Amino acid sequence: MVTVDLILVLVSFVVILFLVKAFQNQKKSMNLPPGPVPLPIIGNMHVINTSKPQKSFTEMSKKYGPIFTVYLGAQRLVVLCGYDMVKDALVNHAEEFAGRPHTAMGSKVLDKYGVLFSSGENWKVMRRFTLSTLRDYGMGRKDIEIKITEECDCLSQTFRSYGGKPFNNETIINAAMANIIVCILLGHRFEYDDPTILKLMNIVTETVKIVESKMVRLYNSYPSLVRWLPGNHRKVTKYYNEMHDFLRETFTRKQKELDVNNQRNLIDAFLAKQREDKPESTLYFHDKNLGKLVTNLFAAGMETTSSTLRWGLLLMMKYPEIQKKVQNEIENIIGSAQPQVEHRKEMPYTDAVIHEIQRFGDVVPGSLPHATTTDITFRGYNLPKGTTVIPLLHSALRDKAYFEKPEEFYPGHFLDSEGKSKKNEAFVPFSLGKRSCAGENLANMEMFLFFTTLLQNFTFKAPSGAKLDLSPAVGLLSPPLPYDMCAIPRG
Question: Which strand ranges, in their side-by-side order, compose the sheet holding 167-168?
Fold first, then answer.
């Protein structure tokens, strides 16, 4: 019996060596970027910190260079590190890197529709519609600024209700940010304790936490095997189904109420497109695209801006001297008036602090994955069509060639010697190129108005004895870990 077991072990060892050698030969013949040798089945998952893959990728780049190959299960990824490398791909070769990878989980819950994860002509049409509609109902318009300032007041009143005592800000900040995108999508807002908004926020938050988990990764590599196993991959489907049930009910109601001559929000605009007698209406403006588009925009519009603002308040507690300088500038420029977007150009220090919050917070460290749209030779390596590419925004935002103190929170990164605003081209929290965030201008408007309103009205302090941890939480995004804070009213 012992002899048989020993023979099995030796045979298994020989097979593994053979597979590794065969892989190395195949990789060499394909002229792929270098990288660690993967193991059968799991690939390189044993050497990647899946809770903080950006850290593992940064370390790997020191050994393999700014472009390298890794395997998560059977899924091959090409990782791009450093601002120069990321810019070269996403700007200088924008069209070739503008695709999205096809994954088993993506096909199951997204069906290649919407705007975030679609590719080709569907993506182009949905992005054009999204940009134009956000301009019509959001970005750059005074009426959306008024909606944001009203929401700022609601959030301030909620903070004030705690009377300076410790509380966790996650749910109420999520709800405030969700209300801005809901206003653009549906034309109304929810109270912070409304069961509908609480359910939708929970779906988004939990999905973001688990979509990068090991089980989801393994499902993408071996869907026919892993789908029978328990794990997070089952929860993703459940969450998306719950979101779609809500949206289906909403669309049905909206279709009955629609007045094409009085379009009030994004869903109205989409439904009006459906009624146009054009080929594009049938091909692209159907309910599947509408459902995925609204899901995309709700998730992106809530979670990223909320996480950034929560990073901002945490950092103000951590660095009270910076908080005080921001408050002094608010007093000098705005006084007790309502903050407005036009104030920002007169507030270089506050502007620099907000930029540094976005850089240091690093909310989307890996960007959403890209895919090559054609066979391409890039930096001397061959990347076949459909190759999954990770432009590591984390490595650009921490690039030592562009930031003096990349690992520290240092507003001086965005100030010149005279204390005036200074641009830094490696500041790319919204990514670059054709896939850059469509809601960048709206997010910047929200961040400035919420941040200045809150610091105008409160001083933020940590509860007595609390230790402030600047480590990010686990998931596709990198929000701060949950924390309690005290909002001490000013004036």
Answer: 167-168, 484-489, 458-461
Radius of gyration of the CA atoms of the chain, in A: 24
* Residue corresponding to tokens 């080929």: 279
Q: Measure Cα distances from 363 to 10, 147, 156, 166, 187 in Å.
A: 46, 25, 24, 25, 27
Question: Helices (DSSP H) in 53-115: which residue ranges?
Answer: 53-64, 83-87, 104-109
Distances (CA, A) of 186 to 22, 297, 298: 55, 12, 11
Whole-structure pTM value: 0.90
HEC string for 275-321: CCCCHHHHHHCCHHHHHHHHHHHHHHHHHHHHHHHHHHHHHHHHCHH
Q: Are 382 and 72 in contact (CB under 8 A)?
A: no
What distance in Å separates the CA atoms of residue 103 and residue 371, rounded to the nearest whole number?
A: 11
- Which DSSP helix (H) or strand (E) runs through 390? strand 388-391
pLDDT at 139: 55
**pLDDT per residue over 450-461, tens digit each?**
999 999 999 999
**Phi/psi zone of residue 286: left (φ > 0), alpha (ψ -120 to 50 degrees), beta?**
beta
CB-CB neighbours of 194 under 10 Å: 13
pLDDT digits (tens, 9 = 90+) for 378-427: 999 999 999 999 999 999 999 999 999 999 999 999 999 999 999 999 99
Environment class of 453 (CB within 10 Å of its CB; exposed 0-12, middle 13-18, buried 19+): buried
Q: Which residues make Cβ contacts (< 8 Å) with residue 223, sequence separation at least 6?
A: 104, 105
Where residue 338 falls (left for φ over 0; alpha for ψ -120 to 50; beta otherwise) is beta
CA atoms of 416 and 467, how far apart (whole Å) = 33
Residues constituting the chain: 491
The Cα-based distances of 270 to 114, 185, 266, 481 in angstroms read 12, 10, 6, 37
Token readout for 87 is 């810019």
